[in-house]
Amino acid sequence: xxxxxxxxxxxxxxxxxxxxxxxxDVINAIKVTSHDGFPIVDRNVVIGYxxxxxxxxxxxxxxxxEIMSQHLIVADPExxxxxxxxxxxxxxxxxxxxxxEKNELLGIISNxxxxxxxxxxVSPDKVYKLMDTIERLHGIKxxxxxxxxxxxxxxxxxxxxxxxxxxxxxxxxKKGLAEPVIVIKKPDQNILVDGHHRAVAAKRLGIKILEAYxxxxxxxxxxxxxxxxRTMKLRTVDDIQIMDYARHPLVAGTxxxxxxxxxxxxxxxxxxxx
Length: 274
What we know:
The protein is of the alpha/beta class. Helix content is about 30%, strand content about 25%. The chain contains 10 helices and 14 strands. The strands form 5 sheets. A 5-stranded mixed beta sheet has the order 6-11-9-10-7, sandwiched between helices. A 3-stranded mixed beta sheet has the order 1-2-3. A two-stranded antiparallel sheet has the order 4-5. Strand 13 (about 250-255) and strand 14 (about 260-265) form a beta hairpin. The two termini are about 45 Å apart.
């Protein structure tokens, strides 16, 4: 995670407000962009920030410079994503302007960007817990190594992934930020345990080899993960279904029926119902 920096996840194309504009201009900008706040700049130098909250009770003709927040927390492009996460959590601020040493605006990093950087994060605990589970269940001592694995040889154990997360993994692979996948390596099988989004992303980009944590088993017997894959009819990463996040079975929807509102009904896959 140390190699993940603000510059890799920030949004460089930022909508801004000039210090000479008014509250009315900010309201119009919110309507057009759907953003809830903007950096205030003077010739690209950040001098403040204004949010929808700052507009409460302000007259539309009030100059921005009179109601903007002037004491800001900003981020450096070389700042580690983990440090930004701590700042956002502790301060409650959702977006940090990213500036250089001259306080010139380079981009903006949001809590959404931080979450995106952490999804499918591989921790050492995850690897060692899996090894411990294998040892307890099967009475064998797996060996851990790190090395390349062919994407085409991977047996998936997850039947579906989500498009928004896949886009994030594609971005990370292009930037050289992708973490290793976790694979159980048997004499005749490479079982993908963690990293299905990364594997599909690599396949889409035409990348044939991924770096992996390899949990090596020399004994030849069938694991429960292999039976799971067989039950779901999974043989290669091409068999993994890509879902829109809004079709997740646990996403609740709000529907109107005859003027009444029903909240909490799961959004179902309409293709299956049809």
